[in-house]
Amino acid sequence: MKGEGKRNSKCLAYVAAFIVFQTIIILVFALTVMKIKSPKVRFGAVAVENFTPSTTNSSSFDMRLVAQVAIKNTNFGHFKYDSSNITILYGGMPVGEAVIAEGRTKARKTQRFDVTVDITSDKLSGNTNLTNDIGSGYLRLSSQAKLSGKVQLMKVIKKKKSGEMSCTMTVNLAQRAIQDLKCN
């Protein structure tokens, strides 16, 4: 009888240790894998494909930018996003727009693709800053985009998330190149 009581208490201790161990594993899993974050949307490289100043008006231009967009998904599930727009702004006013088609970024991967944006200053009428900027040879632009979609974990859990992009860049008109590209 004495040996049997020791064996039962030993077995009970093993069961309790196993339960504590499983609780710790589940807690770590819930705090790391199950934590769903918003994806990051950024410009990679941006190139000026062509720049055409207006011959009749010194304060207007047409330009084409080819930008590499990177969507970084740090989650353990894929991010499926709806179609969206990238807007290029000068002085807070839109001068160009491009469409991002709907798609999917795999778990813990970065998806990269190119987007072409046609920019025209026709929408800006009588902007003296634009005339000064074109005269100086440097044009300061900003960009905005928002990708909305769902992150799906283990084909069971779906959570709505969105990634936002806000970038500033300076276009060197003489070299037809982008300088000082900064994204938040």
From TrEMBL:
Limits of the Late embryogenesis abundant protein LEA-2 subgroup domain: 69-168
Coiled-coil spans in chain: none
Top-level taxon of origin: Eukaryota
Transmembrane domains' residue ranges: 12-33
The protein's name in its UniProt record: Late embryogenesis abundant protein LEA-2 subgroup domain-containing protein
Pfam family of the protein (one): LEA_2
Sorted UniProt keywords: Membrane, Transmembrane, Transmembrane helix
